[in-house]
Amino acid sequence: MALAWLSRQPWYNKAAVKQPVIVYIEGNIGVGKSTLLKKLEEKGYLVVQEPVSQWTNYHGINFLELYSQDMQKWAFTFQSMVLSTLWQTQLEAIQQENPVIIAERSLHSVVKMFAKTQKDAGFMNEEQYVLLDNTAKTMVSQYKRKEYFIYLRGSATTAYQRIQQRARDEENTLSKDYIQQLHLILDNWMENEPGLHAVVDATGSPETVQQQVIEALGQLPS
């Protein structure tokens, strides 16, 4: 049923898409990306979620836990690992040749959101940041797809409350100040991102957010 609904959308038909695209769902931690992506997947979209299971068990090492406990020590190592695993996950999906792929965050977010926050905090030096940035650009160049961004914009306060409510072990050391800093840096990046396709108010109900994202997807240039 979901695939039938999706196949009726004219913009999703391979013949109607002049160039395959990848649409990134960007947003702060706790903004509701996972909930949205599950709903989109149920409708038949090819959804690529962050490979969190690899971050918590990368060759037997829980890098996410190490990073959350000591960001200053593990910032560069963790973001390097995230960049590698996220790229591999997205590249596998791209090889399926679907005209539209929906991805939870982009490789750009690893650099422009998370690494930028850590560089500003003094947890990463300029040379490490430049290395991550150049690596991400090289990786993305292999996608050979037009990139679009949909920004789920919520409030840092609400995001922090959701993080507290879901009580994930690896997130219990995240401070409200850190979430606020991510919010500010993400806002600034999205304001200047040429590939920004839509900004969706993430403070609404999950159903409202889902509908707005689907409408935004329907307005992708063909």
Folded structure, characterized:
One of its GO terms (molecular function) is deoxynucleoside kinase activity. It comes from Thrips palmi (Melon thrips). Residues 24-192 form the Deoxynucleoside kinase domain. It holds the Pfam family dNK. This is Deoxynucleoside kinase-like. By secondary structure, the protein is of the alpha/beta class. The chain has one domain (20-218): P-loop containing nucleotide triphosphate hydrolases (Rossmann fold, 3-Layer(aba) Sandwich), CATH 3.40.50.300. 55% of the residues lie in helices and 13% in strands. It has ten helices and five strands. The chain has helices at 2-7, 33-42, 52-56, 63-69, 71-94, 107-120, 126-141, 156-166, 176-191, 206-218, and strands spanning 21-27, 46-48, 100-104, 146-153, 196-201. A five-stranded parallel beta sheet has the order 2-3-1-4-5, with helices on both faces. α6 (107-120) crosses α9.
Key words describing this protein structure:
deoxynucleoside kinase activity; 5 strands; Rossmann fold; five-stranded parallel β-sheet; globular; single chain; alpha/beta; P-loop_NTPase; 222 residues; Deoxynucleoside kinase-like; Deoxyribonucleoside_kinase; DNK_dom
Describe this structure in a few short sentences:
The chain is an alpha/beta fold and 222 residues long. The chain has ten helices and five strands. The protein has a five-stranded parallel β-sheet, with helices on both faces.
Number of domains: 1
Share of residues in strands: 5-15%
- How many individual helices? 10
Largest sheet: 5 strands, parallel
Q: Helical percent range?
A: 40-55%
CATH architecture: 3-Layer(aba) Sandwich
Q: Looking at CATH, which topology would you report?
A: Rossmann fold
The helix-and-strand class reads alpha/beta
What is Rg? 17 Å
Sequence of secondary-structure elements: HEHEHHHEHHEHHEH
Shape: globular
Q: Got a strand count?
A: 5
CATH class: Alpha Beta
